[in-house]
Amino acid sequence: MSAGEQAPVRVLIVDDDALVRAGLSMILGGVPDVRVVGEAADGAEVPAAVEAYAPDVVLMDIRMPRVDGLTATEALRAAADPPEVLVLTTFDADEQVLRALRAGAGGFLLKDTPPAEIVRAVRRVAAGEATLSPAVTRKLITHVTVVGTPSGPDPRRQRALRLLDGLTAREREVALALGQGRTNAEISAELFMSVATVKAYVSRLLTKLALNNRVQVALLVHDAGLV
């Protein structure tokens, strides 16, 4: 690798279906700036695989026979200096997806996602730019609205509102934009600030709210009922 050239994104594929692993390896293996460094067939194998292969991104299936991807994601993201996690799922697993995102997963892919979109998602997550597509965001917002409005006070909503009340007006604007699934470039255009300034605000939000990534900020905004 020449001076100034970026190292490829290192990816670990975790799925109990050998055909899925092979398909993902084929898709990602043909991309010069992405390298598949290893595979695992169950969540139980993830800690050892992460230690052995040092991936930047883990593509994590949800349904696996021994240790499911949600449990594996929670354990992985709780460890020191964890890799990013991109969850593989289907639309009938909304509640599970929310659990994974709350645990710190950078986003999720549907298993029928076109190859080019898979590559873009891996790059975004590796760069800390994990964002949900508008269609996926709408579906998650609907789910959060359904599960987050029980009779009586909602502790999750109260906690979210309390945390967001501690933000400055500008920080709150950026948080709301993240809740709407906006990218840094879109936030820059909407709020008339540079992309570098947007990134600084996102970093400040993560520190202030004690969150792992921008998707968790979006979920907090959804919990508060602000989008």
Automatic annotation (TrEMBL):
Spell out the Pfam families in the cross-references: GerE, Response_reg
Reply yes or no: does the keyword Transcription apply: yes
Domain annotation Response regulatory: ranges = 10-126
Please give the residue positions where the record annotates the modification 4-aspartylphosphate: D61
Does Transcription show up as a keyword for this record?
A: yes
Question: In what residue span(s) does the HTH luxR-type domain sit?
Answer: 160-225
What are this entry's molecular-function GO terms? DNA binding
This protein's UniProt keywords:
DNA-binding, Phosphoprotein, Transcription, Transcription regulation
GO-annotated biological processes: phosphorelay signal transduction system; regulation of DNA-templated transcription
List the signal peptide residues.
none
Tell me the InterPro entries matching this sequence: CheY-like_superfamily, NreC/VraR/RcsB-like_REC, Sig_transdc_resp-reg_C-effctor, Sig_transdc_resp-reg_receiver, Tscrpt_reg_LuxR_C, WalR-like
- This protein's name: Two component transcriptional regulator, LuxR family
